[in-house]
Input
Amino acid sequence: MLNILYEDDQIIVVEKPVGIESQSNRTFEPDMVSEVKKHINSLSPKKGEPYVGVIHRLDKPVGGILVFGKTKEAAGALSKQVSGHQMEKKYLAVICGKPVDNFGTYVDYLWKDGKNNISKIVDKGITDAKRAELSYRVLEEQEGEEGPLCLVEIDLKTGRHHQIRVQFSGHGTPLLGDLKYNPAGPKVAGQRNVALCAWKLAFTHPGNKKKMEFTVKPQGTIFNKFNKISEDSPTSAGGGMNRQKQA
Output
C-alpha cells in the first residue's frame, strides 16, 4: 500500500491512497501513520515503536501527498513551516458549477461540529470559529450531464477541518462526489469518492535546507476526463504518477 516518493533519515514523503485514514481513528482499519511505522520498523527493527511525526492530514476520501517527520526535530521544523505558511500545499478538485471569477480567494470562518464530524461557515465572532483561507484558479471547464464541471487548482493557505470541501460548498460550487457537503449533487459513472487530490507539496528540508517539491497525478474516473491532467502531470514508468525536485 505504501507508495514512497522520498525518504531519508529525517523525513518520509508518501502518497496516501483514497479511502485510507491519515492517522488512526481507533479502529482496526489501516492508516498511514501505522503503515509508515511498519515500513520503518521493517528496514531497521528496534525495540519500541518508531517515531512518526504527523505534520498535516488528508481526509479519508481524499488522496495525495503527505510528509512525516522521522525525528522530533524534523517534525518540529516542518510544523513551523506549516504554521508560518511556508509549506506549499496545492490541490486539484472537480467542482459542480463554475465560480463567478476564474481565479480568486476565499476567506471564511469555520466552526467544527465534532459530534457530527462536519464544519460550517459562520460569522467571525462565533466562539471557536477559525479563519480559513484558500485561493483557486479554474484550469478547465466541461459540460456534464447536469451542468458545468470545472477542474480547479487550489492553494491551501490554512489547514482547517474539511476546509476545501466546506468553502467551495458554501460558495455555491461544491466538490463532485462529496456526499457529506453535496449529497444531492450530480453523479459520474465510476466516480465513487470526493474529487479532490493533494497533488503538489513543496517545503524546505529540515536538515539540508534544500527546497523539495513533489507532485502526483490525481486518480479517479472524473479527473481523466480533463485534458489538463494528461498535459501537465508527469508520467513514471510504473503507471504511478509522481515527480520530485530539489532546488
Q: What stands out?
A: Residues 233-241 have pLDDT under 50 and may be disordered.
